[in-house]
């Protein structure tokens, strides 16, 4: 029997014209106002952006990766130094994924068994074993505010039987994670939260069974996993809507690995609260800029003498101080500053988007906000 603990999520308002929700999640390192986008700091840092800059952009929570942090610098080091917060000097909430997706992506380097997953490091080829219990211990040592259960993610397309077996194993692993989580305290002396992860590929019966089994375990929150892995966009939207409906109203809902601005708005419309994706920083480093008028390729010749900011309505550091022409020059010249400025701008765009969505929800105008935003975003 699970010990009763206070629910960290508070639902403040649901938009009258949609299922979009505004809420808050209480963690040991601060309150997260939802809907929220989480910048991805795979190895303990958001690429090219400092913690101080993240705070200035309005980031409330960042994401770290259990698999990568386990391989280096190692969770024992993070335990001894006092946790990832002290190591990277980010004093806000941190969420760590379980490493399940990374293990899934190493299809040539891993073997899945009932006990766990044996895999080879992508760094040096050394062999390692992840079990549900070990993944809990690693995240305890990291000291993340929100921990994720160890799951088996299927690719797309997936056969029904393959997706069903992965769901069943994910449920069994979730129980083992929860039991181990309850039996051991955080070595850093504060409360950590544990989220379950729904699987089921694009099969509604499997997702229904997954949600039912996980909800019976009463996790602190729930994630929708196994999407944004190659399925058509219409399937992503359909499965997100279907999955969100299955999850409790009084728990935070997290859509893992999504995504594009339009995908985030569709998911908010469906009642999802939390998002993460490498798109704003990775695409920024490759020269893609997100603006209210759509995507811009800063490398294009037409920006050579464009002395306007990346986005005329943006208040980020890059837009307040530099022109498209200058940033294009930096990018084409291979200057690191270009990567920083583009990452800062794109993260500001994403964080501003979810902040504006939250305001619209609280004002009961989300449907209008979404339509207006997307009409302008896609117009160009």
Main pleated-sheet profile: 8 strands, parallel
- Please give the CATH architecture of the largest domain: Alpha-Beta Barrel
Helix content: 40-55%
Instruction: Compute the number of strand runs.
Output: 16
* CATH-defined topology of the largest domain: TIM Barrel
Rounded mean pLDDT score: 96
Describe what you observe in this structure.
Helix content is 43%, strand content 18%. The protein has 380 residues and is an alpha/beta fold. It folds into two domains: 269 residues, Queuine tRNA-ribosyltransferase-like (TIM Barrel), CATH 3.20.20; 89 residues, no CATH class. The strands form four sheets. The chain has an eight-stranded parallel sheet. It has a three-stranded antiparallel sheet with strand order 1-2-3. It has a three-stranded antiparallel sheet with strand order 7-8-9. Strand 13, helix 10 and strand 14 form a beta-alpha-beta unit. Helix 3 runs parallel beside helix 6 and helix 6 packs across helix 7. The longest helix is centred in the C-terminal third of the chain and has 27 residues.
Features:
globular; 43% helix; 18% strand; 380 residues; 16 strands; 8-stranded parallel sheet; 2 domains; 3-stranded antiparallel sheet
Please specify the SSE layout and strand pairing.
Elements: E1 9-14, E2 21-27, E3 30-34, E4 36-38, H1 51-57, E5 62-65, H2 66-71, H3 75-81, H4 84-88, E6 94-97, H5 100-105, E7 110-112, E8 117-120, E9 127-130, H6 132-142, E10 146-148, H7 160-183, E11 193-198, H8 204-217, E12 221-224, H9 233-246, E13 252-255, H10 261-269, E14 274-276, H11 279-285, E15 288-291, E16 294-297, H12 317-321, H13 324-332, H14 336-362, H15 366-379
Parallel strand pairs: 4-14, 5-6, 6-10, 10-11, 11-12, 12-13, 13-14
Antiparallel strand pairs: 1-2, 2-3, 7-8, 8-9, 15-16
Helix pairs in contact: 3-6, 6-7, 7-8, 8-9, 9-10, 10-14, 10-15, 11-14, 13-14, 14-15
């Amino acid at each position: 029997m699970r010990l009763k603990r206070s629910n960290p999520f508070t639902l403040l308002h649901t938009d009258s014209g949609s299922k979009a929700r505004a809420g808050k999640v209480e963690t040991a390192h601060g309150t997260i106002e939802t809907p929220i986008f989480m910048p991805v700091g795979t190895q303990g840092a958001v690429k090219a952006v400092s913690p101080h800059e993240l705070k200035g952009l309005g980031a409330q929570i960042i994401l770290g990766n259990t698999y990568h942090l386990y391989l280096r610098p190692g969770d024992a080091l993070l335990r001894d130094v006092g946790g990832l917060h002290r190591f990277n000097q980010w004093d806000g909430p941190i969420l760590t994924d379980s490493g399940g997706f990374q293990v899934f992506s190493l299809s040539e380097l891993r073997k899945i068994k009932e006990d766990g997953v044996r895999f080879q490091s992508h760094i040096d080829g050394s062999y390692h074993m992840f079990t549900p219990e070990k993944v809990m211990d690693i995240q305890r040592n990291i000291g993340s505010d929100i921990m994720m259960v160890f799951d088996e993610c299927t690719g797309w397309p997936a056969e029904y039987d393959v997706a069903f077996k992965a769901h069943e194993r994910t449920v069994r692993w979730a129980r083992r994670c929860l039991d181990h989580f309850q039996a051991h305290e955080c070595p850093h002396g504060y409360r950590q939260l544990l989220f379950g992860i729904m699987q089921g590929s694009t099969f509604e019966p499997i997702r229904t069974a997954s949600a039912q089994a996980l909800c019976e375990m009463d996790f602190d929150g729930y994630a929708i996993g196994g999407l944004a892995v190659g399925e058509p966009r219409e399937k992503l939207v359909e499965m997100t809507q279907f999955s969100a409906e299955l999850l409790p109203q009084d728990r935070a809902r997290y859509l893992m690995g999504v995504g594009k601005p339009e995908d985030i708005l569709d998911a908010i419309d469906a009642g999802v609260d939390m998002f993460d994706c490498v798109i704003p920083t990775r695409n920024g480093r490759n020269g893609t800029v997100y603006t209210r008028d759509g995507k811009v390729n800063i490398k294009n010749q037409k920006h050579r003498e464009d002395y306007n900011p990346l986005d005329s309505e943006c208040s980020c550091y890059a837009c307040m101080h530099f022109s498209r022409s200058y940033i294009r020059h930096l990018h084409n010249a291979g200057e690191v500053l270009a990567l920083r400025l583009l990452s800062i701008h794109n993260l500001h765009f994403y964080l501003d988007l979810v902040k504006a969505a939250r305001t619209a929800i609280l004002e009961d105008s989300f449907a209008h906000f979404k339509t207006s935003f997307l009409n302008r975003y896609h117009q160009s």
